Amino acid sequence: MNTEPMQTKVIAARSSRTLWSAPLAVAITFLLVGCYTILKHPITSEENITQASHQEYYRDNCLDCHEDYATYPYGFFYGTYPEYYFEYPRWGHYYAYPWWWDHYWYDDSEAATGDEGYSEEVPEPSAKASRRGGLIPPYVGGAPAISTGGGSFRRSDPNDTQPKGGTGGETGTASPGTSTEKIRVKKADQPGDGNQSDTVQSDTKQQKKASRRGGIKP
Amino acid sequence: MAGSNRELSGVGQETIKPMRKYHQTEFGIVAGLFALLVFFAVAPISAQAQAFEEVALFQETINADFFGVDARAMAMGNTGVVSARDGSGLIYNPANLARVRRIEFRAGLSHLRLSNSTDIHSPSLGLLSDERDQNKTRINALSLTLPVPTYRGSLVVAFGVHRINSFDRAFGARIPEPEVPAFETSRGREIETGGLWKWSAGGAIDISPRLAAGLSLNLITGKDSYGWNRVYANADDAQTITLDQGIDNDYVGVGATAGLNFTISPALSVGLSMETPTYLSADERFESVLDTAFSSFEWFETSYSEYSVTRPLSFGLGAAGSFDRLMLVGDVHYTDWSELTFDYQDDFLPNNREEQFIQDNLKEAISLHIGAEYLFPDEGVALRAGYFRDPLPIDEKFIESERQYLTLGAGFLIDRVMALDLAYVHGGYELRDAAPGSFFADYNTRRIFATFAYRI
User: Which pTM does this prediction carry?
Assistant: First the structure.
C-alpha cells in the first residue's frame, strides 16, 4: 500500500498548524507582556493611598507627575498628527481625540467637556489663525498646549517617558512654568484632607469650565 | 463532459476547481431514440471545451481577486496596509486599528458594472462576437470599532463583516460548430452571482510608542450561483437544442490576518500584513438539462461534490508618507498561487488532475498599488487618486492584457463625527486561449464604492 499521499497530507496539515500558531503566539505574547500600552494607572506609593486607589484620581491629576503631559494634546501617543488637526480641530476630533475624554449626559454637567472639549472653529483675527488651541485635553485645564512651531506635533524623544518639564521639542508646549505652578498649588491642598480634596476637584472643574469659554491662559 | 461544464470562460470562484468530479445521484435518459441527437448535442460541447478548457479553469482563480471593502482605500489604488485608519483595518492590516481613537460604526456599499465582450475567430466563419453585462449593487462592509480607554498607548478591538470576493460575472460568446453540420454556430451565455464574506473579530495594541501589532480571526462564508445556457439553432430555428447547466456552491472557511504598523517618523509609516492560509470547504451541486424543440423529451443530470481548498499565505507591505496635507501611499502584495491545495472530501476521488493543473499553470503574483490623498481641511474634503496592477496568477500565454485599474475618489468629513468616502474604480483584463488569435475575452469593470462612518 502506498502511504506517500497520506504522509504528504499529514505533513501539510502540520505545516498549516505551524503557520497558524506562529502569528497567534506572537499576538498572545504581545498581549501578555503588554509592555507599552497601559490600561490602568499603577498605584504610586508616595500619594494618598485612598485617593490613589481610584483611577479617577489619576485621570484628574495627570500633571501632578507628568508635567510634560500637556505636550500630548491627543494623549500619550506617538502619532503623526498633521498640522491641520490643530488648525481645524474637527479633523483631530474625528481621528485622534480619544472618546473617553468626552463627557456625556450622564456625567457631571459642570465637568462635562463634551462638545466644548475642544475649541470651536471660530476665526480669531487677532490670534494666529493657524493655532486656535486645537483639541484641549481634559487634563490640561484650558492650556493651549501648542506653540506656533511648524511641523507635526510629536514628542522630541519617543523613548523618553520620564516625567519632565514640558518644554521644547519640535512643536513647543504649554508654558512649563505655569503648568508646574498649578501642580504645586494642588499638592499643597491635598494632604490628608477630604474637604481640601473637594476643593481641588472644584478647582479642576472651574478650570475646565473656563476652558470652554476660551480657556484660562497660563 | 462530466464535470467540465464550464465550457469557455469558466466560472469565477474563489479558487480553482478544475475538471470537477461528481457523485452521480440521479441520471435520467428518457429514451434511447434520440441517442444520435444527444451525440450531436454533446460532442461539440466537449470539443469546444477542450479547446478553451484552460481558460475556463483559470477563471476560477482569476476571480479570487480582492474586490474592495472600503471607499477610501479603493480611491487610493486599493491601498490599506498602512493607510487604513478605520474598521477596514480588519481586512487590510489589523495593526492599523490601533490608530482609531473613537468608537466607530462603519458601513459600505458597492456597485459593479461589468461588461464582457468575446471575439472568436473562426477559419470558416470569420469573426464571431458577443457581449454581455451585469450590474450589481450590494452592501459590502459593516464594522464596529471599539477603542479601550488607555493611559498610554492604544488598545482597540473591532468586529466586522466584509464582502471580500465577488463572483458577479457575465460572459457571452458565439461559438463556431464545425463538427456539427446542422448548426454553424451556437450561442453561449453565462451568468454568475455571489460572493465571499469575511466575518472578522480582531484587535490591535501599541507595543511601543511607534509600533502597533494587530490580529484578526476570520470566518468566511459565501455562495456562488452559476448558470450556463447554450443554444444551438439552425438558420430557421427549426432545430433548436438548449443546454442549461447550473452550479451552486456553499462555502465555509477560516483564516487569520496579522499585521504590524511602524511609525518611523511623523512623516513616514510602514506596515506589514500576513494572511494565513485560508481553508475553505465547498459543497457543490450541479444540474444539467438538455432540451430540444423538436421532441417532447429532455435529458437531465444532477450531482454533487464536496471538496476543500486552501489558499496560500499572502503578504502585504505598505508605506505612507505624509507631507502636511498630502499623503502618498504604496502597497505591495505577494501570493504564490502555486501553493494552493485542492482536496476532494472523498477518498475515492483522486486529486491528481487538479494538483497537476495547479503545478503546471498557477504561479506567484505580485500586485502593486499606489495612491495619493490631498486634503482641503477647511472644506472638510479630501481628493484621492490611485492605480493598481493586480496580475493574474496564470501563465502569460493566456493573458492578452493584465488586470489593472485606475481609481479616483473623494472623502467628506461631515461636522466632526461623520465621514463619507466615495470611490470610482475602472479597469479590467483580457484573456485569450493558449493558441493566440482564436479566442479573446475582455472583461471591463467599473466599480463605485461608498463608505460611511460615524464616530461617537
Answer: 0.74
